[in-house]
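Thread: "does anyone have the structure for this chain?"

Original post by V.I.:
We have the sequence but no experimental structure in hand. Need at least a predicted one for the grant figures.
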Amino acid sequence: MDKIIALTRQQREAILQHLTANQVQALSEFTRYAMLSRFHTHHYLKQTDWEFQGIVIDPWYQRQHDHPGDNLYCDCGRRLKNQFILRSRTTGRQLFLGISHFQQHASIPHKVAREIQAGINEINLYMDSILLAYQAGRRFPQEIFQFIVDQQGFKNHEGTIFYQRCNLFSRVDLPLHQRDYQDLQTLYHQLKQGVAHRLTKKEIKQLRDDIATDWRQVDQQITMFNYLLRQHGLTVQDLHRIKSNSINYALQRRKTRFMIHDYKQFKDVTLTKARSQLAIKLRQLSFYLQIFQPNELAKVQCEQAQQILIAHKMSSPKSHFFGIKEAQILLKSKYTI
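Reply from O.Q.:
Generated one for you, tokens below.
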């Protein structure tokens, strides 16, 4: 699979038809996460008035009518596969756009839009290679993966896309990209030979940076949930109450009340604390997932949140925490469930 092959829309759909719903969603989450990482790494919108707040992907885009999800739309009304959410730094206005309308609706330079599209094309090629591997009969290397898990071989990979993709794909038996498979094999052979790698200062910094980026992406998912709450009529007091309860829930059974509120704070914490802060943020995300799950208000966002928790090997709990029940009551007062 060294040769890069781009599938046509028809070829891609023909393979997707053979995937289960969980496999399609896992593949979609990998794509979304890769796009988020590109935005945070390349700072595409740095010289504009807009800041990137998130992305929603319709995993069922090719199936216009016969699918279990909800369609996504650009602010112009056109149906989208990838919906980018932008926020004006000066006015706070939010836009929901497809990449082709970045220049028209947000006055983002054409060069920047081209760079973003080139990144998306590269990610799509990566996804196509996975679909081709699946079509060829390859599946996830479960035995190798399980050995590494048992030997705690992923201890220093928690914040990487590689680790999270392994978690996602192992659950639904999707094959890895060839490069990821080679990395997995390398790690497997090191553990077999009893090689204990000690992290260098440079590696520790990189791992902490990866965790900070990961934290930031989870935080953006929470921001999207809060935006939905505002859009559907909850008061400022209600929103503040829900946010406070989400923090209390995230910090349950912890000895400290310390909680990072800006990803830039990660540069001043140890690797152990960075890992702890990511775990706290993921627990806060699970709070929002639980308050929305009984209804259809945020179906796509809930599916994405579930995939994020799976990628981090976290379950979707069903807690009796009073703050969750209180938030659900507030939602019931605003919506018909």
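V.I.: this helps a lot. The two ends are 48 Å apart (CA to CA).
O.Q.: and The chain has twelve helices and five strands.
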